[in-house]
Specification:
single chain; 327 residues; alpha/beta; 2-enoyl-CoA Hydratase, Chain A, domain 1; 9-stranded mixed beta sheet; 3-stranded antiparallel beta sheet
Length: 327
């Protein structure tokens, strides 16, 4: 029997998909513009607990794959909160977080949107940390009435890092240069094409400290830590769940079921209150561990590679625990 090599089959499928030859009932393209729809995960009755997720790198930029683009974390969550505002039956929200953080702006936008929704709707909010909720991942949990960490969670990293890729050494090796005409001595501050000056380093350090101070102040406001604990947290190190609890960064250690139970208690709901999430396409046998959000595909989804962790980061300020970037 003649065998067909798997790579040849994949190549043929890609050619057919990209060439527009696949028609009728076979679709690799998804449905661009599909709105979010409610899906019931568990429970019954009129009152609802909404389960939302913040996963991966927090960014205001669309997440690029090889053949598919996902909306940014900011776009996904703000769209879901907009939908939640229309549903007065939602009495509590559980925010499931598994993220190393992200850009300072995207993290702050999510914090602002979550805080605004909570204040407008008067819902009870529980943050449930999974494997990782560091830096910006912790930042977005701050509005919660109760923060719960999984027993194996890594959290903390309350600080800022400035990332700037440098290519000057490589350019010197291959004999390539860049001519720059600038209107001021600091116009090309942060340029990847040359080493930073001492003045530029001091200015960058000042901006980093200013953004870190904002993060630290929000922690003081929401968590009201003891001075000694705040000093430890300000070192920007990460903590285990138990260490975070001892410091006051979180309220309890448990599992996602415990977070939902806490939400029910805070909101005064029945034990079998309905748990919902938002998805673009319903998923059979959906569980709490897949709370949302199937991506809105604008390109074929036959093959998808998440390139976020393979590419150098964009230059800029990050609430990010860098050892976890790209994992």
């Amino acid at each position: 029997m003649r065998r067909t090599h798997p790579a040849a089959c994949l190549s043929l499928l890609l050619c057919l998909a990209l060439g527009g030859c696949m028609q009728a009932n076979i679709s690799l393209f998804g449905e661009p513009g599909t709105p979010y729809k409610e899906q019931v995960l568990d429970g019954k009755g009129q009152d609802k607990i909404l389960l939302l997720g913040v996963d991966g790198l927090i960014s205001e930029y669309a997440r690029e794959g090889l053949l598919r683009t996902r909306p940014s974390t900011v776009q996904e969550l703000t769209a879901q909160l907009r939908l939640a505002r229309k549903d007065k039956a939602i009495k509590a929200v559980v925010l499931k977080i598994d993220s190393p953080g992200g850009t300072t702006t995207a993290s702050d936008i999510l914090y602002h949107e979550i805080m605004a929704y909570k204040q407008e709707s008067k819902v009870k909010l529980v943050a449930a940390m999974m494997g990782l909720a560091a830096s910006g991942g912790y930042y977005v949990a701050l509005p919660a009435d109760h923060i719960l960490a999984h027993p194996t969670t890594i959290t903390g990293s309350v600080g800022v890092i400035f990332l700037q890729p440098r290519v000057a050494g490589l350019m010197d090796k291959i004999g390539v240069g860049v001519d720059v005409a600038k209107s001021g001595s600091l116009k090309d501050m942060g340029s990847p094409f040359r080493a930073a000056t001492e003045e530029e380093r001091k200015l960058t350090a000042g901006m980093t400290q200013a953004l870190a101070a904002r993060f630290q102040e929000l922690v003081r406001t929401h968590r009201k830590l003891e001075p000694a604990a705040q000093g430890i947290v300000n070192s920007a190190r990460v903590f285990t769940a138990e260490e975070a609890k001892d410091l006051g960064l979180i309220d309890s250690v448990g599992y996602l079921d415990d977070a939902l139970g806490t939400a029910r208690t805070l909101a005064g709901l029945a034990k079998d209150a309905k748990v919902i999430t938002y998805r673009r396409r319903p998923v059979a046998d959906g569980t709490y561990y897949l709370p949302g959000v199937e991506a809105e595909d604008s390109r074929p989804a036959l093959l998808h590679l998440d390139l976020d962790g393979l590419l150098p980061p964009r230059a800029g300020m990050y609430y990010l625990w860098t050892p976890a970037y790209g994992q």
